[in-house]
Structure formats: C-alpha cells, structure tokens
Amino acid sequence: MMILQTDEQTIGDLGIFGKHDSRSIYDIYNRTHTRGGESLLEEMFRNPLSDKAEINRRSNIIENFARLNIPFPYNGSLFDVVEKYLLHGAENHSNGSQSVLGEKEIQNGVAGVIELIRLTSGFVKNSALGEIDAYATEYDSITHLVEDPAFSPVLRLPQKEKPSYAAITAFDALFRNSERHKLEALLRHIYLLDVYMSVAQTAAERKFVFPRALDKGQCLLTLEGVYYPGLQQPVGNNISIDSASNVIFLTGANMAGKSTFLRALSTALYVAHMGFPVAATAMSFSVMDGLYTTINLPDNLGIGASHFYAEVTRVKKMATALSSGKSYFILFDELFRGTNVKDAHEATVAVMKGFATKANSIFIISSHIVEAGESLQQQKNVSFLYMPTRMNGHTPTYTYKLERGITDDRHGMVIIRNEGILDILKKN
Length: 428
Hints:
By secondary structure, the chain is an alpha/beta fold. The protein has two domains: 31-206, MutS, DNA mismatch repair protein, Chain A, domain 3 (Orthogonal Bundle), CATH 1.10.1420; 212-426, Rossmann fold (3-Layer(aba) Sandwich), CATH 3.40.50.300. It has 16 helices and twelve strands. It has a six-stranded mixed sheet, with helices on both faces. One of its GO terms (biological process) is mismatch repair.
C-alpha cells in the first residue's frame, strides 16, 4: 500500500491530533466503539494513502455506509471481555505457560466469543453490507470466517442454553488455541467496520463531502466551500488549482484569515488522501506523493538555531524531497518571517521561482511582503490571491473570503491607533 509522505510538523500544523486544550481533527472523526477501532483510526490518520484506487475505494465504502446508515451492532463492553480472554491465549501460545485466567473468566470469555460470532453471523446475513461493491473483499472475508466449519458448533448452540462445563472446556481450547488466529482476524475486520461506521456518522452529521481522487502528476485541486472543521462558525472558500497555476502567492493582513484558510485547505487535502469525507461542499484532487506544511515553525533554541535558520532548514528539506521528481503539496505560511524585509523579499522570490519549475507539484506561499508578489508577476504559473480588509470608518473588518490579486491593504497603523497604544505611551 502506497503511503503519503508527511511529517510531525505538518501533523501539528493541521491539528490532526491536537493538544490537551483543543479538539483535534482525529476527535471530530472518532465515534468508534472499540479500542481496536480507535487505534486503527489513529493509524489511518498517521498514514494517509497515496494510491488513487485505494483512496477512492475507501471513500466509496464510507460513503455507502453513510448512505445506508448502518448502526454498529455490538456493545463495546463485549470487546473488553473478548480481547482480555484472547490476550491470555496469545501469551500462552508464545511461552507455553498454563492459563492464568480463572474459571469464571474463562466462562465469560467463551460466552463473549460465542456472542461475537453469533452477532457477526446475523449481521453479515441481515444487513446491507453485501450491497457495497467496494466492500466485497472484506465482506467475503468476514463471511468465510464466521461460516468456517470450526465455528459451526457455536452457531448450532440454542440461543438461551448455557454450555455445559465440558462444552466450555472444548470451546476454550478451540478459541484460545487452534482457532485463535481466526478470531483475531475477525476482530480486525470488526475494528475496520467500527472505523467505517464512525467516519460515516461524522460525514452524515456534519454534511461533509466525499472527494474524488484523480491521477498523480496533474496538479489538479478543486475545492468549493472548504473550511476548517474545528471552527464553530466557519466561512467557506473556493479555490481551483491546475498546472497553469500550481504556485499560489497569498497576501492579506494578520487577522484577515490567511492562516485559517491555509489550514482548511491543507487539512481537506490531508484527510482526502485518507479516503475520508472533508469539510467542503465539493472536492477533487490529484493524488500526491507527499504533503508538507509549515505554519507554526518553532525555533530550535536547544541548538542555538534562530527562526530564520529553522525556515532555511525546512526549505532545504522541501527542495531535497522535490529533487526526487515526485509530486508534492508544499505550503509555507509567512515564509522567511525570521529575517529582515530585504532578505525576506529576495529569498521569497528566489525560492518561489525555484518552486515554479516543479510542474507536477503544488505550492502555496503566504507573505506580508507584497513587493515579492510584484516581482513574481511575470512568472506564468504563479497565481495571486488575497484575504481583504474592509474599513468601516476607522475600524477594519474582514470578509474571510479569497479574492484574486495582491492586497494593497495598509491598516497596521490604524489598528495601533484604535487600540490607543500611542496615547498610552504619551502618558507620564
């Protein structure tokens, strides 16, 4: 399976797992009922896909789950019992020791596995799972597992009849020894079901859209109504990128919404590569080999590195990746903010011209240095967008909507005067 290249800087920038005081993107999608499903969902977030067919297949499965509104048929507490029970079997299998489970725990474990097999058998027979073409491989695997002849004694048991002591002993040997690997495989399928249903529920409740993945190397990205899903009252934006405009220069005031838009776009593209629905009204995208953002780049004071040096190191990492010839989505918010305006101007122009030679990748650079944008006007594949500031008398207001061009806003001193800073400084 081909995995999208990314790094911890990007995962942190986008709030994929968040911090203790904020809700993460992972939290938004996590409605899982099992620890195994929760762990698998985290694994998917850490390993987005880089394969068009696999992305579209997963997206199709989840979209059908959302359409069919199939509920998770298990009680989460059942898995606590079964997992603990099988875990002891795994330990015994590896070291040859005798079971450390008590008689009551064995009885509960056997009963839990019996219920799991019965529930799964009924679920695959009576639900609409078999109608989902993209899910056919997983559906067949689950069906074959629960219909395995080894488990036929389980399905023949009368529903309300408790197994005898001899039957429990026989089932215990079956479940924890000879057929344990099949039960573990069944659990993995159920965890995946848990993830699909969890994400489908998120899509239905939040009205997220299912993107369409396109071939690599085309530099196509179209988004309508994209917004950052962690916001309470988001403003959606539209953007369309192709090979004739694969480098975007974004300007605007500090509070105009640049960083929020950049997070919204990058998060949508990241999540789309997982085959998950995104916070937008429409989306299609060329599959990329890697996705890297630089929004909140920390100084590395531990080695005496300045912010500017951290930026240079980050740009070097991107240049090295691009030299492979693969397709990347690369984003810098306020590139070279750690140096003086003249150096930042020259460096921004030079780096963006270098990026512009990479025809199979997409680049978005935001900057306060509008003069850098003016120096890039002759570059054919560079497009210019900005977030406007509107003045309501002496008060700046923000639309948070993208517009074409380079901003000519100069409202920094207005804000400083409005805050009364100069008056405060005049006081003795």
